[in-house]
Design goal:
The protein has 476 residues and is an alpha/beta fold. It folds into two domains: 197 residues; 177 residues, no CATH class. It is built from 15 helices and 17 strands. The protein is elongated. This is Neutral zinc metallopeptidase.
Length: 476
């Protein structure tokens, strides 16, 4: 069953998105990698949430208090049901059977009932119970906080994940021998297919913009990732939902490719998707805490630039400056900039140190850490690499190419090559969080990003799984 912990939801309070980078203009090219589209749909801000003319929620809910949280959750289940009634046969064999048994509980109440053999008190969660063909949710913490920080449509998306487990049973794409990770990744993918339907304007109950609205749904997916495990806990990697990158990748697969692709997810597919990226931190020794984070200092940034020189081997490496940016042919950014005229990367150490300070749900912020900052500096360095190839730096395509090349660099830094700085488990999740909140990694030389966080992440993922030539060919 899918365990979506509401304790993580408060992390999204920082996602009052679109922070630092402005949006770039330009001419679009290919559908999936088009700077002005999200998974092939036009990327634009607009209304998200319950439609003004939405029908009333339908169905009996065991344990309900009749409040707004239960009405929203019930409406979400109604909508996901309608989606699968209309689309199940297009992707799967067998017959679709709507889930009509619904249950609500309040995880803050000591008298909260046992559901599907598990306690619900102090366990803010949503779940599908196969024996009872039942979907249940927590109205006390999970739904209201999710609604507050991620929006109404995120609750429908969350329940679409749980409904996905029911669809797995009906379609026989998962069984008792399927690992938890595969099952959860399939459910994330199936939720992505539903969210695509909403974003296309086909839902009678919900609407979702492909800019800010979809960014918030993705932030929810990111926030509900698994913790970062140490090497000693490696077996848990197959017993959870996956890293933020795992979860968002699976969601994007469903959003862009449809439900049939979700059934193809297995451990081999997940392993291939992960490549050689780090998944665990070193084993803990003594009383020293496990952490992959470093404090962002001038020395660390100098080491980073040296490492990037080793990775890309430019004929004319850019200089690194900690002074106030002075540039005649590009606009300075708030944390880091690249000036083509002087071939200089400028870094504001104080701003980057604050951006790279470890912070997460306990601080009521979206995930951030050292790689949130270091990936931004990396993106400014790769602009110098692009400049050396005489490619345009001020276009929308340049913004995505920069994110892609940053992914190439990060992938190279994750391999054990004796580099002064290496990626550790959890770093990529920090970079992905930055792509959603400020978009700096996916910005051009003037600090202009593209509208959809969805597409920024697609570009970054392209680099993680590809090479520099792929980035130049894909984002022209």
């Amino acid at each position: 069953m899918g365990g979506l912990k509401a304790a993580l939801i408060a992390a999204a309070v920082a996602l009052l998105v679109a922070g630092c980078a402005t949006t770039t203009a330009g001419v679009a090219v290919s559908p999936l990698y088009d700077p002005f589209r999200a998974g092939g749909l036009p990327a634009e801000d607009g209304p998200s949430g319950i439609r003004a003319d939405a029908p009333a929620p339908e169905g009996d809910v065991t344990g309900t208090d009749g409040g707004d949280a239960d009405k929203l959750a019930t409406l979400g289940v109604n909508d996901v049901t309608e989606f699968w009634e209309k689309n199940y046969a297009d992707s799967f064999d067998g017959s679709f059977s709507a889930i009509t048994d619904l249950e609500s509980f309040n995880s803050e109440s000591p008298s909260s009932p046992e559901i599907c053999g598990g306690q619900t008190y102090d366990n803010p969660n949503a779940l599908f119970c196969p024996p009872d063909h039942l979907i249940a949710w927590d109205r006390g913490v999970l739904v209201p906080l999710g609604q507050q920080f991620f929006g109404d449509t995120s609750i429908a998306a969350l329940l679409a994940h749980e409904y996905g487990h029911a669809v797995q049973d009906m379609a026989h794409i998962a069984d008792d021998h399927t690992s938890t990770l595969v099952s959860e990744q399939q459910a994330d993918c199936l939720a992505g297919t539903y969210v695509r339907w909403v974003a296309e304007g086909k839902s009678r109950r919900f609407q979702l913009s492909t800019g800010d609205g979809l960014n918030h749904v993705l932030a929810g997916v990111l926030t509900l990732r698994d913790p970062t495990y140490a090497a000693d806990d490696a077996p848990y990697l197959e017993q959870g939902h996956g890293t933020a990158l795992d979860r968002i990748s699976a969601f994007q697969m469903g959003f862009t490719s449809g439900a049939a692709e979700c059934g193809k997810i297995d451990m081999n597919e997940i392993t291939q998707r992960r490549g050689d990226l780090p998944l665990t931190l070193p084993a803990q020794t003594g009383d020293e805490p496990i952490s992959g984070d470093v404090t962002v200092t001038e020395d660390v940034l100098t080491s980073l630039v040296d490492v990037l020189g080793t990775v890309f081997k430019p004929a004319n490496p850019p200089k690194l400056s900690f002074d106030t940016p002075q540039c005649s042919d590009a606009k300075p950014g708030p944390a880091a900039s690249y000036c083509p005229a002087s071939n200089t990367v400028y870094a504001d150490v104080a701003t980057l140190a604050e951006m790279g300070k470890p912070s997460d749900r306990e601080d009521y912020t979206l995930l951030q850490g050292d790689d949130t900052a270091l990936s931004v500096v990396t993106s400014r360095y790769v602009l110098a690499v692009e400049h050396e190839r005489d490619t345009p730096l001020d276009t929308a395509a340049a913004a995505l190419r920069t994110a892609c090349l940053t992914g190439v660099a990060q992938s190279a830094m994750s391999e054990d090559k004796g580099l002064a700085l290496s990626l550790t488990a959890g770093d990529l999740d920090e970079a992905v969080a930055g792509l959603l909140t400020n978009g700096m990694v996916a910005s051009n030389v003037d600090g202009e990003t593209v509208p959809a966080g969805f597409t920024r992440i697609v570009a970054f993922r392209s680099g993680l799984g590809g090479d520099a030539d792929l980035c130049y060919n894909r984002f022209k």
